[in-house]
Write a structure and sequence with these properties.
- With 823 residues, the chain is mainly α.
- Helix content is 39%, strand content 10%.
- It folds into 5 domains: 158 residues, no CATH class; 237 residues, no CATH class; 148 residues, no CATH class; 126 residues, no CATH class; 90 residues, no CATH class.
- The protein has a 3-stranded antiparallel sheet.
- The protein is globular.
Length: 823
Amino acid sequence: MSEVEEEIEIEEEEEVEILNRVVFTHSDYHVEGWDGFEFPVVEIEGKKYLDPDLITRTTPASKGANKLTLSTKQALEKYGDETPPVRVYADPKRVIQDLVALNPEIKINYSDSEEKLFAQVVLEMSNIWNGKYRTMKGNPTPRDMQKRVGSSWNTVKQYLHVAEVAGLFNPFTRGKPTRKPRTLTKDEKEAQEDMDEFLDTKVVQQWIKKNETASQPKNQDALYQAMRLMNVSPDRLYEMAQGDNVQSMEDIGELMERGRFKDLRSAENILPKSAMVTRKGKDWQLPSELMTGDKHTRGAWYWNQFGLEGKPKVWYYKTKDANPDEYKNKLWSLREWAISPDAPEIKGKVQEVSYKNQAGKWKKAKVFYGKARQLSEKSIEAGDENVLYNFVGVLRQFLETHGMSFGKVDEDSIWAQVVNPPRDATIHLTIDQLENMKNCLNKGKEDGTTEVIDYHNYETPKEKVLKFKDEEEAKSYWHDAYFYFLLALELGFRQEEAFTIVGEKTKEVDEKDKTGKSGVIEFPNGDMKVQIYTRKGERGKKGQKIHGGFILSDETKQLIKDRMEQIKIGKESKDPKKYGTVKIHDNKPYRENSLIGASGKYTELGTLDYPATLMKKDKDKRTVKAVGGNRKKVMAILRHCYRESGLEDDYFYLHTLHSLRHMFAQYWLELSEYNYSFVAKLGHWKTESIVKSVYGKDLGSRIMDQMRDFATKDPFKKLHENKLKREQEPSRAEQLAIKNLGYGDEEELEREDERLRQKIFFEGGDYYDVRLPEDERVIIHYEVGTDLGVKDKSKSNPMKKFILYKKETAQDKTSTDDIAEGK
């Protein structure tokens, strides 16, 4: 028998017969486009299995309790052909009986075939996982599932793996019931296909893989829009980036400046005049079904004019005698589109719409359909170019990924990315308004005001008044809002940081220590510090950095102590809920009772130290979960008090919680006489320029006061006094040496600098200016052998006393402990 014939015979011996199928034809949580699934069943050594070519029961160990498995293909690649298949057998005495006993809603016919019983168990495991019968908060954990079905997690995850491969549910939405996706229009499908095709481009995929922020949908959409406006494909832009760097910048910049995007609006696709109606006493309004938003909607409410209620979805006559061909065949440049409220939506299409005319009859028309620009009136008046800034940012990132470099460019260049100063830098509130805020919140807390008038803005109250069921409930929310306000003035926190502060004692850690926990630190001398989970810049990371702030106000200190005492009593009580405390959560002692409000009132239990947002690739991880309804009540109370305090700027009402960070900045700027550096440190801003440009520009009157303070009545007398002080004090270099390095004079600084240079020559390492404070040093790493001007390079030089740096060896150490510690 030949070798080939022998191989054929072996294949025939291992061939298995397909006996039946496991069929799934229904699921409440299927992925889009799912129309049922069948698994062939094979018999191996007298037992039935799902076809191992389609699925195995290999579930590799993975991070994150909720991650199910690798795909079959990944599992086979990782573990080879020995991965065992899934048995088509659900033991009625164990798996099924326990499942039904714990979930009486489930009905199973025990007389069904093994294949049908198996299919029913898989489906019901999937339903429970997705919360069909009794919704579990958040994504269910393995422990949750074990309790719900009566089987071990190792058993459960096999069924869930089959369910996932069969398409019974979307793994990214598991634990959350999903609605059947709406049917997309032809134009919407085309737009989605265009975007998908764009993202699948090789050069775009490379950009996404090499840049963490490129995985964010908003940045992908910005790049897509920019290329549409430039009328250039990703591949063509890639080719242009491969040429001469200077010429490429010029050529691509020219594409951004030249009109290349065609406007589709014209008389041929404008909404008929007969469609315009009178609404709420106002003439010449679009039918409500062709609008989004209402009279409280902010932004450019239609193309070319402010004041129309809501945002239009269609191209229409702005006035009875408006020119419908105003934009016919117009070509928009990227720059012009970015700054214009008149620009059409990039994904806009000509399509048929239905509307109810003045006579109340339904009509149809083929019109240009697309969203109006969302630029605020004030931003347009100020000539803001932040949309352009965002476009330029993603384009530069894409081009740098593919070899281009920009460096410093002229401010007038389109590549400059000069962002506009934020408008809110000009927002100032008086000391009286700040005090009025405190008094308003305190009064509500003391009185237990049960009805709160909420506001869209200073002029317009919301339609619905916030009502609390009784005085007790009202007092609890007013107390929390007051506590939030006082803490904000001390700590300057961000929204998600505030609602996740822990009200229990914790250990003080360095701000870079990611093992640290939020909580309160009380010092022997009576001082108090609160540690907070930092979330900005920590996307997708559990165990974020910690930052802390000292509490100065005696009133705020007392509120913190009261809450800590409440938590302590709650933990000792048989009824911890009465004290807003949780003793046990997820079968473990709970150590993250919240500082603001009862635990679980504003943030779901067990999520306080999770990140606020995740990167796209991290969708299977947990995030902090807000209890939105309760948070909205606190925001309504704050907006009510903004109105009572006479705060007219829309910013306070549109950014209810973040406005308190502005109050914090201005509060301490006033107290510190506009010491920007101090306030930057206090509020954990990276630079004092951020505080200047964003949170409070100095007023002219303040400058005059400072000039008087600095100059005194006799400026020249003060200058002479300053001169005498300088003569009696050490030089700046000496001061820095004493402060940072422990050296006494310039000679020691020079010696330390020489040590650094020698260390780099003999061993490699970091170099920096030893004369500068640590936070001002620019550190550059050099490889071994780099000569930065070493005076003595010879190891064999007999005058070894001139070699300031000596590389340590094991022989130089007195013990292994010294070696380990680097002594």
